[in-house]
Amino acid sequence: MDTGSDVVWFPCTSRYLCKHCSFSPSSSSPRIQPFIPKESSSSKIIGCKNPKCSWIHQSNINCDQDCSVNSCLNQTCPPYMILYGSGTTVGIALSETLHLHGLSKPNFLVGCSVLSSHQPAGIAGFGRGPSSLPSQLGLGKFSYCLLSRRFDDDTKKSSSLVLDIEQLDSGKKTDALVYTPFVKNPKVEDKSSFSVYYYLGLRRITVGGHHVKMPYKYLSPGEDGNGGVIIDSGTTFTFMAREAFEPLSDEFIRQITDYKRTKEFEDVSGLRPCFNVSDAKTVSFPELRLYFKGGADVALPVENYFAFVGDGVACLTMVTGPERVDGPGMILGSFQMQNFYVEYDLRNERLGFKQEKCK
Fold first, then answer.
1. Which residues of 233-246 are buried (b: 16+ CB within 10 A; e: fewer)?
2. How far apart are CA 32 and CA 16, in angstroms?
3. Using only C-alpha atoms, what is the Rg of the chain?
4. What is the rounded CA–CA span in Å between residue 116 and residue 24?
5. CA–centroid distance for 310 within its chain
6. What's the pLDDT tens digit per position in 136-177?
């Protein structure tokens, strides 16, 4: 489930090939069998003239203008290639009937992927685009509660996902939630890749009660569309542009004086800063608090921003990349959402959340 993309795709055809992927027939988890379109009477290949073809390509497709009327009607939608932060998938667009807990949705657009690299066994896009699952089902809201990463290898426990299919306000849980409005990116129409994101208005960040000063352009989308903060369930560790990450990292280093910094683990793990806490009877780190527009603020549990990566070594689980970043200045990842009930209220254009033990 990926709120940072909008295409729903799965392994498809008997010749599906996945290189460097997180699942395999030899893994401990049961293998997910590829979908075979020819065995489904409701499966149809999307035509080039079908508006849904442009959904999956995020642009208008120029079908062959020289074809005759009959061949134009039979021309199929060109194969898609979707690029993610860690890999790709390639396939063809299908129209299929979705059956989901008693709901039947005909003519549902799905990606029939035949080749992938560095991917899970399929992705359900929950972003803002027209091809996403919430958009195609016309959801008023959806919510999830992500289990602690401690249960990653526990096949008997799983996180919850709630779809408001009836588009009715149930009132459940919402009284205890705090809300922040979604923010508009001024360049959504010009840069379609930005249109799938859920932007949030992050006003400031504090570490141990101290305001971390960082360039505002990374917290709010600029006139060129770059910058701003998005929430993305498909990103693991929160990503920050370098000019925003360095002040945050420096503040943790400045305040954490009880533990010795261990740079050799930083080189191995790619995380920083890291501290040796093996000799400590109790481990304590400064509080990390995020302040959002609308008066919503949240203090993250320490296990949501520090993790043990070795014997007695704890590292900050927020990362950075190259100095220049095109796109969001900060991506709030799923590691920071552990044990939070998160609601995407699409009807009212806002995000709600509260801390709770996800079961």
1. bbbbbbbbbebbbe
2. 11
3. 22
4. 13
5. 27
6. 999 999 999 998 887 777 777 888 888 886 544 444 555 689
The pLDDT of residue 254 is above 50: yes
Q: Could you identify the residue written with the tokens 């569309």?
A: 225
CA dist 10 and 43 (Å) reads: 14
Q: Could you tell me whether strands 260-261 and 238-240 are parallel, antiparallel, or unpaired per DSSP bridges?
A: unpaired
Cα separation, 110 vs 92, in Å, equals: 9
Q: State the chain's mean pLDDT as an integer.
A: 88
What letters, b where the CB count within 10 A reaches 16 and e where it falls short, cover 76-93? Answer: ebbbbebebeebebbbbb
Residue range 5-32, pLDDT digits in tens:
999 999 999 999 989 886 654 444 456 7
What sign does the CA torsion over 305, 238, 343, 288 have? Answer: positive
Structure tokens at 6: 């909008």
Higher pLDDT, 336 or 323: 336
Cα–Cα distance list, 148 to 180, 246, 258 (Å): 24, 27, 27
The beta-carbon contacts of 38-45 under 8 Å, at least 24 apart in sequence, are 40/96, 42/96, 42/97, 42/106, 43/94, 43/95, 43/96, 44/94, 44/95, 44/96, 45/76, 45/77, 45/92, 45/93, 45/94, 45/95
> What is the model's pTM?
0.90
